[in-house]
Design a protein that fits this description.
438 residues, 11-stranded mixed sheet
Length: 438
């Protein structure tokens, strides 16, 4: 039995274990039917032209974790943002861990998706928002929707400025030889509200894990959302991250994606504008080597006038790694005065690394300012020579150049403690001891 058949046959058993409303049942049923129809994406699909799932599809992943493993704080403390207090929603092998979490219902909801799906008091919210911006026709989103049950549920009410960042962390312990995790997050940010969110997926051993995640974000009028995805997993971990964002009038949503670890990472990031004067910010840094593969697939759908979007992705590729950037800006006829910018810059550290870049603009309005750019090159030899001539060793000179290349994205991180953590990860990736607190 291949993985697709295994998932389809597991669906009925899964539904018998969860207690949800008929409406959610109908959504799940429609989703599994769509996944059964289209299956896993292949390289024949234009959106997956440069990323193959063949190896993953042939792996006998466990759909559910049958065993429980206790995780002590000392084992995972390094993965939290230790320097500042945060709300935490933590899952271990797909199951909520109350010991490691710090949730709240005081002034806002930072809690569980399973609770929101099951409790009557959340029914109106679930009916209004659940699966309303996610693309049900996308096969892996359909797969996640069919098995959606656990994840983070965050609801920030009107006018609320959340007093500390929120961390969403999914740990896998290796209780199964190969495990498939499918977290589902729902984030609602009310009018004039502000929230900062950090999301991580972390394997704690060398067993294979595939995470197929879906996150829906709804930013209401004048809401501000700062979302940070830190992807620094083990070499046996693969991630397919599907994020869908709906923005209302005068809202600002920024998503920073830091891709450093994992065997295969695919980020599907989709922004949908629902009114005027919206600002969407997409930034990312990728630093990988060996045979790692990172694919960024972005969409900003401009459907209303006087909106902005800004994309800036930096990539540094060594070893036999592969990078993909497939960014699309779509401007409807009604979206006059759109200001959209897209930039993708890449550095290849040797002749065995590969980058595939495909920036796209589809513009149907005539009064817009849209631009895109893409560069693929190597480190500046003259700059390297200059720094070495001033006494800086070659390794440190190379690291400084790569850090300077990434710094434009790093400087836009709004949580100082997270910025320091990203700096340390970059130093580790570059193999130097420079502090980088620049």
């Amino acid at each position: 039995m291949d993985l697709k058949d295994k998932l389809i046959s597991s669906f009925m058993a899964f539904e018998e274990t969860v207690d949800t409303s008929a409406a959610v049942h109908d959504v799940r049923t429609e989703a599994i039917k769509n996944f059964e129809k289209v299956g896993f994406p292949t390289k024949k699909d234009e959106a997956w032209k440069y990323t193959s799932l063949n190896t993953l599809v042939k792996t006998d992943f466990s759909v559910f974790s049958k065993n429980n493993k206790t995780v002590e704080l000392k084992e995972v403390k390094e993965y939290f943002l230790q320097e500042v207090d945060t709300y935490k929603v933590v899952f271990v092998d797909g199951k909520y861990n109350s010991f490691l979490s710090q949730t709240t219902h005081e002034g806002l909801d930072v809690c569980l998706m399973s609770a929101a799906l099951n409790k009557p008091k959340y029914k109106m919210v679930i009916d209004t928002y659940f699966n309303k911006v996610a693309d049900i026709q996308e096969s892996l989103t359909s797969l996640n929707t069919a098995f959606s049950y656990e994840g983070a549920y965050i609801n920030v009410p009107k006018g609320k400025v959340v007093d500390k960042p929120i961390e969403i962390i999914n740990f896998s312990t290796g209780v199964e030889a190969e495990l498939l995790l499918q977290p589902r997050n729902l984030i609602i940010v009310g009018e004039n509200a502000h929230v900062q969110i950090i999301e991580k997926n972390q394997c704690l051993n060398s067993n294979k894990v595939l995470t197929n995640s879906v996150t829906e974000v709804f930013a209401q009028k004048r809401a501000i959302v700062d979302y940070y995805k830190v992807q620094n997993d083990t070499q046996e971990a693969s991630l397919i991250d599907n994020t869908y964002i709906s923005q209302k009038k005068d809202s600002t949503v920024s998503v920073h994606t830091f891709s450093f670890g994992g065997s295969m990472t695919r980020n599907n990031l989709n922004f949908y504008h629902k009114d005027e004067r919206i600002n969407s910010i997409l930034k990312g840094i990728t630093i990988i080597g060996d045979k790692q593969h990172v694919d960024h697939y972005t969409l900003v759908h401009h459907a209303h006038p006087n909106c902005e979007s800004h994309q800036n992705y930096k990539g540094i590729y060594g070893g036999k790694s592969t990078g993909v950037f497939n960014g699309k800006i779509y401007v409807e006829k009604e979206a006059q005065k759109t200001d959209a910018f897209q930039q993708n810059n890449n550095v290849l550290l040797n002749d065995k690394a590969t980058v595939n870049a495909k920036p796209q603009l589809e513009i149907f309005a005539d009064d817009v300012k849209c631009s895109h750019g893409c560069t693929i090159g190597q480190l500046d030899g003259d700059a390297m020579f200059y720094m070495q001539s001033r006494g800086i060793p070659k390794k440190e000179a190379k690291a400084l150049l790569m850090y300077a290349f990434s710094n434009e994205v790093i400087e836009s991180i709004k949580i100082p403690e997270l910025k320091q953590k990203i700096n340390k990860i970059i130093a580790q990736k570059l193999g130097v001891n420079i502090g980088f607190d620049l």
